[in-house]
Fold each of these.
Amino acid sequence: MRVLIADDDPVLRHALKAQLAAWKYTSVMASNGKQAWGALQQPDPPPIAVVDWNMPGIDGIDLCREIRNTPLLAAMYLIILTGNQEQKDVVAGLESGADDYITKPFSWDELRARLRIGARIVGLQQTLAARVDELQEALANVKRLSGLLPICAYCKRIRNNQDYWMQVEQYLAEHSEAEFSHGICPECLNTQLSLDQT
Amino acid sequence: MTWTPAVLTERLGGDEHLVRELVDIFLVEYPKLLQAVRTSAGQGDSPGLRRSAHALRGSITNFIDDGPTVTALALEQAGEESRLTDAARLVEQLEREVEELATEMRSFHGGDSCES
């Protein structure tokens, strides 16, 4: 899974890149908020970001807000990694749209565990999105059978979009997942037998 | 204040080569960061002092939690509160502590093992 790293400290950037590679993540590096925002405008942006608060240009808080206000990026998992340690900072960071907040100095084991949480949530969101797509597709097929259908009052044929009058079972078979097996109901059986005897 | 490379190496999963790379980067970067602190304190630039001290503290924190980290935080807070009366003394102290750390790093980089 790819992770965006946005931090203006070259020492930490290098350490993060090396550690994330060891943990089987692929890093996309940015040394300031503007670069990070640029990386997120590319096709298929990383689903997780680790963002410093204090950066030149766009800071981490504004970056989180921008991401949350952008529909295509709104589902990203955002971790703020910062030296701002006061409680009011943590609240402001989370209110800007971050999912998690880690203060420096930090434990590498803790960062790894929190990234794993992010990856799990991103995985769940992707599974859910795929399921919603499947359901929407199924719903679209169901809708093909709704609406006003012109049906002959006598023979019960249905007129399709090409002005062709079709048997009911043929129409339903073409516009739904239904399949038909042919039989005869008791009432029709009696009627047919009576006709045969006359 | 004592920097213990072995502790950082352990935190980074035993990767001593990575620790040496991080030291290399810090030794190149810290003079610029320190100069920014010196300049903003000298000019009485409180927001600049807060930003530059924060940046230096962030970089030092990668290696050590006390000594210059604490002094940089004091300067950062002084900048935030526009309370610069003690800034010159704190900058001098920070310079001493950072240079001491850099000397330890150069010594480590000169070939000392993390285990020493």
Amino acid sequence: MEEIKKLYDAVLNGNFKIAKELTQQALDAGIDPQVLVQEQMIPAMDEVGRRYEANEYFVPELLISARAMKASLELIRPLLAAQGAEPAGRVAIGTVKGDLHDIGKNLVAAMLEGAGFEVIDLGVDVSPDKFIAAVNEKRAGVVAMSALLTTTMNSMKTTVEAIKAAGVRGKVKIMIGGAPVTQKYADEIGADGYSSNANSAVALARKLVAA
Amino acid sequence: MSKQLDQLISALPVITDGAWGTQLQALGLAAGECPDEWNLTHPDRVRSVAAQYVDAGSQVILTNTFGGNRISLGGHGLAGKIEAINRAGVVISREAAGTSALVFASIGPTGKMLMSGDVSETELAEAYGEQARVLAAAGADALVIETMSDLEEASIAVRAAAATGLPVVASMVFDSGKDRDRTMMGSTPEQVAAALSEAGADVIGANCGLGMEGYIPIGKRLRAATKKPVWIKPNAGLPELSNGVITYKTTPEEFARHAVALRDAGVAFIGGCCGTSPLFIAALSAALKH
């Protein structure tokens, strides 16, 4: 069991080769994949997020840890699926219509995956219809919208309205983020939450799926 | 550096220009529309922005080519118009500048991240090289690599720009870390100055970010870290949204008052980024010229 604690360090330090090796060894030794994910990997990513929020880690550290997490998850996911384990939640994420910027959206997606969410990445310039389709067809419980530009953030409002008009507002929580976005704007357009960075986005998504 | 540039900075500081994107929006640029394409579709409106800066006292104006690389234009389905858009950008600014200002052509980031594998170093070098060559051939006086968040991407862009033989300004955004003195990727002003000099930049700078006040210490640190001239173009504070309208809270007078500290610290080029207007440049001219 001492060995699997090293998996925590490998994810925290962003060493994806070691993370993958340790994961395979642990699985070969018959350790429950849920234990690996819940007790080592997710706590490691939570620590990464904490350090990022505390300005001790920057985007590169966050990305390499997310990459290590992803490498391990690729080995584990088929086993979790076979156990019938459900993800922490399903999030459909995208940069809103008219906006082609995806760095912020990609960081949030990576951190959500690292926290055990199933992430449906809809890409950039995403129309309200595509968000609605992800709710209806892919059973997304959370819609996460990103915008970099003050000129495109109003597509968030349009999308919230379209989700209401489609009659699925009750089935989905809506979270938003991006440089010009504020809590006030989230309240104004009737979103369920706003987060200012990739780490607080994870906390918000957890709160929204638990609500 | 070119003789022209040496001459220009013999009397400091040099007043550069203010924002283009927010000015074009005021002239009708729609949400999500590609600003660079306006060089072809609305050249008169683009020229009017440039001319207002020259009238306000800009000694250096940029070009409406911030997103004119293959990767960014490709996102708008405009990859086939790279040459026309960039060439027109230089021509428009040159017409507005006349003999009153120099034209430094703008090169912004691609919006793709090297580290996450969205784009390769080769793709970046090719995209920046292509744009830089068109801007140089169109007659730009210098190239400005600006609003960069990743020092690696910025260095690739600087090397590609320097290969044209034109003077190169390299300017990054400092808005991260506990003291807001790091780039998004965590680089300090000292690391930025060293790496960009190494890549071949002639002028090192900071732009965009969180406003004028925070860029005074950044300007001082860049000044101390390099012998090259320093370039600073901050935002007019942070955008705030009230009733669906975006406003920047800093006034031209406040902006100019803080800019005096930049001049006194020996910053060579001073101007504004998002939210600044010809009024800001006029206030800078009044406050900074001896």
